[in-house]
Design goal:
Chain lengths: 146, 205
Amino acid sequence: MMVRTIAAALLVAAGTANAADTVTASAGWIRVLPGSLPAGGYVVFQNTGDREVAIVDAESPAYGMAMIHRSSTETGMGRMEMVDRVAIPPKGTVAFSPGGYHVMLEHPTHPVTPGEPVQVIFTLSDGKKLPVTFVARPANANGPKD
Amino acid sequence: MKHITRRRVRLALLALLALVALVGCQREPQPEWKLNDVSGHLPDLDFRLTDDNGKAVTGADFRGKVTVMYFGYTHCPDVCPLTLTQLHVVLDRLGAPADRVRILFVSVDPARDTPAIMHAYVNAFDKRAVGLVGSDRDVEALAKRYRSAFTREPDRGDGNYEVSHSSAIYIFDGSGKARLLATPSASQDDIVHDLHLLTSMETTP
């Protein structure tokens, strides 16, 4: 009985861990602007699992405030809106990229300089945290490397 | 029968010659723009603003340069940097003629954007970029002149706010005439192509 309970608990634990581990992030970079102006963070999320997982929040020790935003230039107007969740479909990929989804990072706790690694911790819809290392890039960078 | 055929051939040849002549005529004065040609549809470059060195400037100060005008603000972390980065890449690809081009970044956020902040901001993207600030009235007048619009969104609660703004890129020739209109999604190839044409027209008066 005891063994079975432990086994069941382990299974549940494994199941939960599995859900979080299915989401990975790569190519994270931050466009650093002069002074303490807000910066945009970009990254690619991949969900290898069979269930949808959403990104619901972000925070960073290097910034006082992190928010998930989406820009659009539809109808010729450039605007930004706050987003509550970004769903990553099963076996799918979602890119946070310039002109679309991005992490808006405000109030740097220290001057962030290009080349510096910056940690951003995402909260997933299953409650798990996903820490991702971004690289700080100059204002006129096109991506994590160029 | 033979006679009719010969006449038909002669007519067809004449039509072809006329067509070739017509195409030949049109090609000379009409550059083949890739972006939207707005010649004659938008007013000349004209404004009274302050540049990022704190100097009062007008549209006339940029005569002799091809100008690429874009409205935005420095607290814009995504779309404005994307557009300014694209313009920087475009000017680098343009090569030497880029010396005759200026990017004019007009702030639609007069409350927060000072010449000093604009100076640091535009220079982080490109040395050929000029930041322009002005009073609400002056900026509104300029935006209106080019049928552009901007709206200050409500405060997010922490004193910060976004400004929604037209994302169009306006291109003027060296005499200040409005020539082309591009969207931020325009291909860099197309912008490079048209700036090549426009800057080469400037050198051959």
